[in-house]
Amino acid sequence: MRVFDFDGTIYDGESSVDFFKYTLRRHPKNFRYLPRVLYMLSRYKRLKVSSDELFCALERYGAEFLKTIGDISSEIRSFWDINEHKIKPFYLNDRRPDDVILSASPDFLINEAARRLGISTVIASKFDLERGKVIDLCYHTNKCERFRAVFPDAKIDEFYTDSENDKAVFELADKVFMVNGNTIKRRYNNEI
To answer: Which residue(s) pair with 121 in the sheet?
Structure first.
């Protein structure tokens, strides 16, 4: 089984950030949320708030933000029409229908990309669009829990990621590959 992180690994960038920017251009009234989001992100980067506090704040702003968008499904399809080119060539050239995406990004955003790529299994942060609430976060150690909930006894043959934040998943994999741009390098368990 091959398992892939999404943002920075298969997708060149952060899809949630790109979607936020995309919707800001289409719905300028949402600029009012930008200062609060940037403030929380800057505090997170300076280690002033935890990832849980960041996600709670973004969830709060996200609920308000999503209400202003309207037909979210249409916006997501339109976003991927424009951003599908950011799927990295290394993945496009070697994708398989039985690949698994394991991502912290919201499922409502990743599911459309996976559908276009022909991937049927996506494990991502579950999001209730009507209430603007994260139901089940798929981040850090939660990625392992979410993976085990879907595949209780499976062994990951190959795991691809761009981030050491996925260290918890490394333990589930026979081989770990670090992705930097379009360069893929095998990471061995004794590496720091």
So the answer is: 100
Per CATH, the architecture of 2-12+86-187 is what?
A: 3-Layer(aba) Sandwich (3.40)
Please give the structure tokens belonging to residue 96.
């398989």
Closest CA to 162 of 116, 104, 119: 104
Q: What's the confidence (pLDDT) of residue 136?
A: 83
Alpha helices, DSSP H, located in 118-191: 141-150, 167-170
- Check residue 48 and give its pLDDT: 77
Cα–Cα distance for residue pair 90/78, rounded to 1 Å: 24
Residues 112 and 77: beta-carbon distance below 8 Å: yes
Structural domain spans, the chain: 2-12+86-187, 17-76
Q: In sequence order, which residues have a C-beta less than 8 Å from that of residue 163 and are 6 or more positions away?
A: 5, 8
Q: Do residues 118 and 98 touch, judged by C-beta distance below 8 A?
A: no
Compute the average pLDDT of residues 121-136: 84
* Whole-number pLDDT of residue 92: 95
Residue type, 60: R
Residues 6 or more apart whose Cβ sits within 8 Å of residue 19 = 76, 79, 109
Task: Identify whether the C-beta of residue 114 lies closer than 8 Å to the C-beta of residue 122.
Answer: yes
The partner residues of 186 in beta bridges, in order of sequence, read 177
Look at residue 39 in the predicted model and tell me its pLDDT.
80
